[in-house]
Amino acid sequence: MHSRSATALFVAFLSLVAASSVPAQTAPQQLPLVQAGNFAYLGKFTLPSTDSAGVQTTYGGNALAMGPDGTSLYYGCVYGGAVVRVSIPTIGGVATQVEACRGVPNLGAINPTDPNAKLLGGVLAWSGRLILSGYSYYDGNSSAVASHFAGTRIDTASGPFRVGTEKPGLVAGYMGVIPSEWRTLLGGPALTGQCCISIVSRSSHGPSVSVFDPAQVGTTSTVTSTMLVGYPEAHTNPVLGSYGAPGPMFSGATRMGGVAFPAGTRSVLFVGRHGTTYCYGEGTSNQALDRQPVPGQTGVIYCYDPTDSNKGTHGYPYKHMAWAYDAVDLLAVKQGLKNPWDIVPYATWTLPEVTGGNGTASIRGVTYDPATRRLYLTQDLGGRTPEVHVYEITNAVLQGPTPEICGDGIDNDLDGLIDEGCGSVPVDEVCGDGLDNDGDGLIDEGCAELTGEVCGDLIDNDGDGLIDENCEQAKVEICGDNIDNDGDGLVDEGCVTETAPPGVPVGVRGTVKQATVSLRWSPPLTGGVATSYVVEAGVAPGQTVYSTPVGLVTAVSVPNVGIGKYYVRVRAKNANGTSAASKEVVVSVGCTTKPRSVSGLSATSLGGLVNLTWSDADGCSGSTYSVALGTTQGASDVRTLTAAETTTSTQLPQGTYFARVTVLSDVGLSETTDLRFDVGGNTCVTPRFRTKLKSVVSGRRVSLGWTPLDPDTANADDQLAPVSYLIEAGSVSGAANFGKASMERRGSFLNNVPPGVYFVRVRPMNGCGVGRASNEVKVQVR
Question: What pLDDT digit, counting tens, does each position of 36-72 carry?
Fold first, then answer.
């Protein structure tokens, strides 16, 4: 077939990707979440200690941002009133100056009545201009109003301009770009936020971020913005913890360096420093003076902090952390379904590679480069040469294709060719697996020993070009006739017809905070597209005394729930019907005594992903779980996780580890439970299951549907790394010369197709690679 006509035919054929895949406005909600294992540490580089004019960059690092050319960084000069622009060197190298330190000429106009410091909070290169934010550090009476500047150069930028109606302390810091797939949903192309300034009356108890359009800065007196995450003093969140008390996620010594929103994910990531204790007073390196009064200073105490001798907030020992939020929650805020202070991180983890640093600041700035998927973190080392740490964020969508594996008969690198570049190495056909192992376009040719068809596996076992011929007990389902053709007790299963309901929602989780029950789940792996969900609950297993539709969301919160134990399920719906109930989860509301320690703590690992699970007999309201991981018993030198349910996952290299789990409830802490466990080699694991593919042709209308042959393995693989599907089509059996396309998490598509012959198969895939192909179907459209 002529290449142009083949391409056109494939484009037309896969036009049903656009027509039948998840609608554009809901597709981002099904993208994967970034986890700790997606943070790959690459190393660090250093910065010059002064610019060409002798201005110090030590004691700096705020307002970190990507330069407009993608090869440089803006970096805060000494004490935060200006920024220098430096090149990005190779890992281990030293940056060089591109532009000398420059400050905004009218920075003091943020709050001219305040004689104290005015600091730059963020820089954003946008459409040929620079957008800058600044704040008045000691604005205790919230007299500042404006916060942002704009111009082609820093030292000629105009402003300040007001962003939104929030106090500047909630928006006048770090900035970041929203991926294109989320901009319409969230209402803008960029984010601006701030966190945890000491004057909390105008700041946030935890990260805050608002959506805005940088193009409006300088063109209007007040830039439109909407706060999507934020915890003003009047709306603190008990999960994060209060300002004056240490919590697993927040204290007055917490500081956020910046925000990153990686494309192809639904994760909004805040990165910074967390103080594991809280003390306001004079820093001291003498631990015996901790919390003792300072002579001659009424009401002032000492705070043990060997890294910082200043007066102010202290939280020693410090750790560097990432706070990961689900953008679906931010969307619920944008839609008015939740408040910015109602949502909490779905995961937090420490960054053990970033060690040392000045206790006052440590991580001062964070920025993300979508082109390289690199996250840059500036570390303030006091008077020493500053450093920039570099991570790469990897996930299922952003990872490139896997290399070709010779001899497996699979198009591993997704270029439409099988075993290309494998030279003349002979590859033998593996009889009976239904794959073209030797890449000659034939399946199981020369397999004389395959004299019998294996009925029901949808594979051409005997190599005669027919599938399951003469198998009365394994007939293929005929879609749309409302008959159980294949005798498995189901009617039209896996069929994309006018009567295809969605599959069962997966990954249902439930948490309880005080009297609010929060539920979260993932869309079905199979069946038609869900257009809404129904939540059911009862006071006994399988019982339903509460049932309510919740619309097209995958997370809900129910306030003011009475004391008791509840059994909860979720069903998916569309115009064609309602799915079966999901796996049931149990949530308990109400607890008045100190929680008992957890039981049944266990660990399993696959592909370096460790799953820790345990049981909580109390289920106290307000409970979360602190999971400390260390290389020795009782240590937390690897990382500390905060879980909202009785399971958590993290990526670990090969080795021996110790886990320590503590229940954190509204009424106290439990005793700890410890576990020693081993992690084997962390080879990435591609999906292990195969799918069963079916097709129906009616005129030019083609429907395809696929379901896992082993649903349990499919669900397990989806928990290991989110599973999506790849469809391949070719002009001959086994080929993919027409092309390939991601179907995301759908289990079907349906559309009109031009005349032609198509050989189609489906593969499951995740961030580790592409799995085995389904059976192949021949689609002939006349």
Answer: 888 989 999 998 888 888 888 887 888 999 998 889 9
As a dihedral over the C-alpha atoms of residue 380, residue 383, residue 385, residue 388, rounded to 10 degrees, the angle is 0
pLDDT tens column, 126-155: 988 999 999 987 787 778 889 999 999 998
Q: Following DSSP, what letter does each residue of 429-455 receive, concatenated?
A: --TTS-S-TTSSS-SSTT-TT--S--T
Residue pLDDT, tens place only, 727-748: 888 888 888 877 777 777 777 7
pLDDT of residue 115: 76
Is residue 255 classed as helix, strand or coil in its secondary structure?
strand
Please give the average per-residue pLDDT across 526-544, as a whole number.
Answer: 85
Rg over alpha carbons for the chain, rounded to the nearest Å, is 29
- Find, among 492, 490, 489, the residue nearest to 481 by Cα: 492
Residue recorded with tokens 């803006």: 74
Looking at residue 277, the DSSP 8-state letter turns out to be: S
593 C-beta neighbours (distance < 10 Å), count: 10
27-to-23, 35, 74, 727 alpha-carbon distances in Å: 6, 20, 34, 17
Q: CA of 176: how far to CAs of 35, 123, 132, 268, 673, in Å? A: 20, 9, 12, 10, 40
DSSP per-residue codes, 46-89: E--SB-TT--B-TT---S-EE-TTSSEEEEE-GGGS-EEEEE--
Q: Tell me the CA distances in angstroms from 482 to 486, 492, 495, 497, 527, one per residue in order.
A: 12, 6, 11, 11, 16
Handedness of CA 329, 330, 331, 337 (dihedral sign): positive
Indicate the DSSP class of residue 502.
B
Measure the CA angle with vertex 526, ends 525 and 527; round to 5°.
Answer: 145
By the 10 Å C-beta count (0-12 exposed, 13-18 middle, 19+ buried), 5 is classed as exposed
Q: Is the pLDDT of residue 275 over 80?
A: yes
Element of type H or E holding 20: helix 15-20
**End-to-end CA gap in the chain:** 17
> Strand 207-212 and strand 190-195: pairing?
antiparallel
Contact 48, 89 (CB under 8 A): no
pLDDT in tens, 415-432: 445 556 665 434 556 555
Q: What is the pLDDT of residues 354-392, one digit of tens each?
A: 876 544 547 889 999 988 899 999 987 777 778 899 999
Instruction: Determine the Cα–Cα distance for residues 718 and 187; give it in Å rounded to an integer.
Output: 30
DSSP state of 413: T
Give the separation between CA 685 and CA 400, rounded to whole angstroms: 15
- Helix (H) or strand (E) run with residue 274 in it: strand 267-275
Q: How far is CA 181 from the centre of its chain?
A: 15
Helix (H) or strand (E) holding 523: none
CB atoms within 10 A of CB 667: 13
Entry pTM: 0.53
CA dihedral defined by 430, 433, 437, 442, rounded to 10 degrees? 110
